[in-house]
Amino acid sequence: MSNKEVKAALKSARDAIRNKEYKEALKHCKAVLKQDKNNYNAWVFIGLAAAELEQPDQAKGAYKKAIELEPNQLLAWQGLANLYEKSSQTDVKGDLADVYQKLLQLYESGDKQKWCDVCNKLVELYHQEKKYLEVAETWQKLIQMKQEEGAEKAELHQLWKKMIHLLKDATENQDNKTEQLLLTAFEHAVNSADTVPGEDHQNLYKDFIQCLSKFPHETARLEKACNDMMALYPTMTYPLEVLCLHFVQSGTLSEEALQCFSRLLEMDASSCPGIICFGIKCLQEKKYKEAVKSLTEGLQKTSQCPAAWHYLAEAQMKIHKHRDAVLSCNQALEALGSPEGPSLHWKNRSLQLKAEALIKIADADAAEEAIKALEQIVDASSDPVVLALRGQAYLNKGLMDQASKISQELLLSHPDLAESHALEGFIHYSQKNYEQAERSFLSAIERKAETAEYHQYLGLTYWFMSDETKKDKGKALAQFLKAAKLDSYLGSVFRCLGNYYRDIAGDKSRARGCYKKAFELDRTDEESGTAAVDLSMELGDMDTALSILNEVTEKASTGTAKWAWLHRGLYYLRTGQPSQAVADLQAALRADPKDSNCWESLGEAYLSRGSYSTALKSFRKASELNPGLVYSIYRAAAVEQILGKYENAIATYQQILKETEDYVPALKGLGECYLMLARSALDNYLDRK
């Protein structure tokens, strides 16, 4: 076949393809290849025809043969691209990307429009595959090409915005290079906008700042972006809110940060980040209750701020709301997720604070949870304060050997640390080794004199120490007063002062004041609440006693605050208000159904109300729970006597007298029953028989 015949055969093949006669085209191409097996066009036409005849493998082979013959010719690459684009197989996407890359090389020096079309296709392919770095790099080449062609500012702006859109899903788990390309795109888009200031530009700036806030290491860039936006949009609070939360999260509250807080609150007093920042400022200024109030309010709407939850827990610890502090630490840890970098610092701090709060709760379950929290702290073994907390947790759990081992290790490795000596003091105190405890607490105070807890425990050590200190509690009082001065929110130390003024000084009024203060600080402190009520009653101040009881019972849920219900019930009983007494004593029994004394008091209330049957049941229940309650047994017999059940009453009185011969009320009741039986016999004329 001559060259002329080859050209004619190729022309026939082209015409056949145009007329969709693909098998005919294949015949012409095969005839050409018999003569010239390296004919580029013949292989390309075979690829085209085979593709249309749905023979993808043959088409792919033909195109690859053509490419092998002429690697820098377009036709075969274009055909291969079309073949892969139509394929439903997912494994060809990698090959298609390689084909697009080659086409970009081939078009680069020629047809710019086709280069851009292929570039768009390649970017779309990478985006589907979530290869965000390749998306960014390829799209940046497209923008570069447009810049070299002298594209308009508006067109470039749209291209930068498209790049942002393509990469917006990549912020969660991308490499540093992709991140930098995204931020560069934002900077170009923000700076190339036409209408500044304007709504679109404003939203773009907000997205830029939001993106920056996700990258902890881009603090300088974030601060610059916020300040630039504030300069352009001085009435907008958004950049200021982000900047304030950034300062909160950074943990360093500089003068600049405090100025931002004040400026934000001036602009919008209801701004949640502003309220959070105000709360942190209150915490710094030791206004702990205001701090708790503001941080709680701010976090109701901006809950995803781990640092703010941590600061709230700190404030709650300062006012000894330990259970609330545990919940706040849990919120901080939940908001942190699986942290790295600066966030890991917050995780460690929150875990440590949670452990401290659980240790203060001081029961075995809380101690177990504290140990688990401490185990999660990174590099905990190298931190002596964390080790001391672990020792306290073991002590609370009753694991004395482990606590003692940690204490000994700390005293050897960190003899100048107050916590080392305090832990030793807590161990000695729990074992009633008061002289050793005194030495340990004095050593702890020497190293950290401003810790109220150390002074309180030293005071308690003096309180229980020896016969001499039992007579003279002056040393204990001095330490309690010091602790109360250092920490005016420490309710338990005011209870200790109340005990001193009541039991030692005999000053009921001052004792009542201390107990009242202790109870106001800690509503769960039943001992202080009870003592405040009892002393108020002794001092004839029923209004104060009732105000305490009313406040507790109003807030109490079913089955709680037994002591308050019981005290108020007894007050109503004494003041001749039996119906109210019944209601309160029933509420007390819901909290503790096995309290025999409470059943006895309820019986008295029913009796005063004239409900004899229920009174009888209550007295019987009391004597069932505590057979030693002679008074309840006697009152049951007295009610039976009132109801005219003289034989039953006599049997009960005789039972009492069998145990206690000289129990006068029973003797009197027994006599009265015999007399009533005699009268009944006379009324029935039994004397005539």
How much helical structure, as a percent, in the residues?
over 70%
For the termini, the CA-CA separation is 158 Å
Give the strand tally. 0
Oligomer: single chain
CATH architecture of the domain at 541-626: Alpha Horseshoe
State the fourth-level CATH superfamily of the domain at 541-626: Tetratricopeptide repeat domain
- Main sheet properties: none
Whole-angstrom Rg = 43 Å
Mean pLDDT score: 88
Q: Quickly count the helices.
A: 38
What is the general shape?
elongated
Unreliable stretches (pLDDT < 50, length at least 5) are none
Class computed from helices, strands and strand pairing: mainly alpha
Q: The CATH topology of the domain at 541-626, please?
A: Serine Threonine Protein Phosphatase 5, Tetratricopeptide repeat
The CATH class of the domain at 541-626, by name, is: Mainly Alpha
Strand content: under 5%
Highlighted features:
mainly alpha; 689 residues; single chain; Serine Threonine Protein Phosphatase 5, Tetratricopeptide repeat
Short description:
The protein is mostly helical. Helix content is 77%, strand content 0%. The longest helix has 20 residues, at 342-361.
